């Protein structure tokens, strides 16, 4: 499986890392879990509803989430948002 990101995800990631550089390790850890075991309990993986019904979300910390969707054999990271934003 291949992992890619959208420009929106990259932009939001850059903003979050400027404010909180320690976030880099937390995100890396959760993405590594996603790559090796989609069912790892710390991911708190769940499918979204409404306008984002084709997307899934994983937990990073507090109310911070990564949203993504499947495009064939690609996991496409779509956004880095707080739980309230989706």
The portion of residues assigned to helices is 25-40%
CATH class: Alpha Beta
How far from one another are the termini? 26 Å
Second CATH tier, the architecture:
2-Layer Sandwich
Widest sheet: strand ordering: 1-5-4-3-2
How many domains, as an integer?
Answer: 1
Give unreliable regions as ranges.
Answer: none
Shape: globular
The structural class is alpha+beta
C-alpha Rg (nearest Å):
12 Å
Could you describe the largest sheet, including whether it forms a barrel?
5 strands, mixed
Mean model confidence by pLDDT: 95
What string, H for helix and E for strand, traces the elements in order?
Answer: EHHEEEE
Main attributes?
86 residues; alpha+beta; YaeB-like fold; five-stranded mixed β-sheet; 5 strands; 34% strand
Summarize the SSE layout with pairings.
Elements: E1 2-5, H1 7-19, H2 23-36, E2 46-47, E3 56-61, E4 64-71, E5 74-82
Parallel strand pairs: 1-5
Antiparallel strand pairs: 2-3, 3-4, 4-5
